[in-house]
Design a protein that fits this description.
With 444 residues, the protein is α+β, with helices and mostly antiparallel strands.
Length: 444
């Protein structure tokens, strides 16, 4: 007799439970492909435990999204005012329908990822494409439409797309307030379960404590609330995903966890230079220098094929990619030559770029790399329900959130062959280079 429900063991959340419809999605070739896409690209070359894949992450995002939906849509947790504004909450049939949509969207939210996830996505897809666009195309593909149509009731794939990638990445689609809130549950900046799971999962596998927070308390206190009457969203009166005051410290802990994980793990200089080396290899290795956006071709390429290509090139000195492959296969990555300090930034905001350009002139393009990244904003704003029922902005509550620093990196790397000479050169020239670039701009 066929089982109606299935359980999958998980090291973070113990169990993930699926029904037969969700199992159909899990068994689809596009979802199974995620078994071979590392969650953190080549981070396992720095932290050996970071070998987890998008597959288990997506399963747990489904589990958490369903849990959050059940809590925030429960009639006892929704005020009459919100029920008036969101009729879906008051209609049992609609509520059950969206209860079917949200786990499917959560399962599929990463289904379009390229090999090695984010490592080289920006420069290795044709203009106008990213992994969210590929996710959209896969959800709307004939293969997946057949799965959606066989479900009871049949699911509309455009709803799944909206919730899986959210309004920021689906700007060609119109979102209702309800759809926006449900997409926040999965990919939102404040309480998206995608973020909750990757922080917990990455920190577990890497072996650091920075990404941990009380997600049980946080999820239990999430609510659909009116937007705060003060703060950045003063003019936005639409309901949004917020938190009761009892869970505010857990929300703070989530945001702090993300800050520490970026500072200590995701922006680790050796992790970052491996992304650059991988991109350089793929740019030459891929046909026409890009990953294909054809879904059949996308299905055929995972980390396995790329890793085999790297190894093959690294053991053949006649291969034109021999040197690039050896940087990865034999961990001969470039070393950190310069990291911009706050003092340097006070003198020249583009200190890293200035050092990089001068180093290129001195040692040649092939021997130095530059890496710059700057978060667009600090802590997200969300409504908080205070003990007296008042709704306030999270940024209006005295806490660490209002002073959350923005994570920024500005690295210059050098080939090991020139590193000792480059370090001596930089020690003498650094102050002059940074100051010189300012003077050049003034003259310009």
């Amino acid at each position: 007799m066929r089982k109606n429900f299935h359980e999958v063991r998980d090291p973070i959340h113990v169990f993930v439970r699926l029904d037969n419809d969700e199992r159909e999605v899990l068994d689809s070739p596009h979802f199974q492909r995620l078994r071979h896409i590392h969650q953190l690209a080549l981070t396992y070359l720095v932290y050996p435990g970071a070998t987890h894949k998008r597959f288990e992450h997506s399963l747990e995002v489904m589990e958490l999204a369903s849990r959050v939906y059940d809590i925030v849509s429960h009639p006892d947790n929704v005020t009459d005012k919100i029920k008036d504004e969101l009729p879906e909450v008051n209609n049992d049939e609609k509520r059950r329908y969206w209860r079917r949509i949200i786990p499917m969207a959560a399962l599929c939210h990463d289904i379009g990822h390229l090999p090695f996830s984010h490592a080289a996505e920006k420069d290795l897809l044709p203009k106008g494409w990213d992994h969210e666009q590929l996710t959209k195309e896969i959800i709307l593909s004939d293969t997946m439409k057949e799965i959606w149509s066989k479900m009871t009731p049949p699911l509309r794939p455009e709803y799944i797309v909206k919730l899986a990638i959210g309004p920021k990445k689906a700007q060609d689609l119109d979102f209702s307030t309800w759809e926006t809130i449900l997409s926040e549950i999965i990919v939102g900046d404040a309480f998206g379960v995608d973020r909750m799971d990757y922080l917990l999962r990455d920190s577990h596998h890497i072996g650091v404590a920075y990404g941990k927070f009380d997600h049980y308390r946080l999820i239990d206190t999430l609510r659909i609330l009116p937007s705060a009457p003060s703060g950045k969203n003063e003019e936005n009166s639409e309901p949004a995903l917020g938190v009761e005051f009892g869970g505010f410290q857990s929300a703070e802990a989530l945001i702090l966890a993300r800050y520490f994980m970026y500072s200590q793990v995701y922006f680790h200089p050796v992790r970052r230079i491996y992304d650059i080396h991988l991109k350089d290899f793929l740019k030459k290795w891929l046909p026409d220098n890009f990953f294909s956006t054809d879904l059949n071709e996308h299905l055929k390429i995972t980390d396995n094929e790329v890793t085999a290509g790297i190894y093959k090139a690294s053991i053949n000195s006649n291969d034109e990619l021999y040197n690039k492959a050896r940087l990865l296969a034999f961990r001969k990555h470039f070393k950190l030559l310069y990291q911009a300090t706050p003092t340097d930034k006070d003198i020249n905001l583009e200190a890293g770029q200035a050092i990089y350009e001068s180093a290129k002139d001195k040692f040649g393009d092939d021997f130095v790399k530059h890496d710059y990244s700057h978060q667009k904003s600090g802590a997200p704003e969300f409504p908080v329900k205070m003990p007296d029922e008042q709704i306030v902005s999270s940024l209006a509550i005295p806490s660490t959130l209002s002073n959350m620093p923005v994570v920024s990196i500005d690295y210059v790397f050098a080939d090991r062959e020139i590193l000792p000479k480059a370090m001596k050169w930089l020690k003498v020239k650094k102050d002059e280079i940074i100051q010189m670039k300012i003077e050049e701009k003034k003259d310009g």
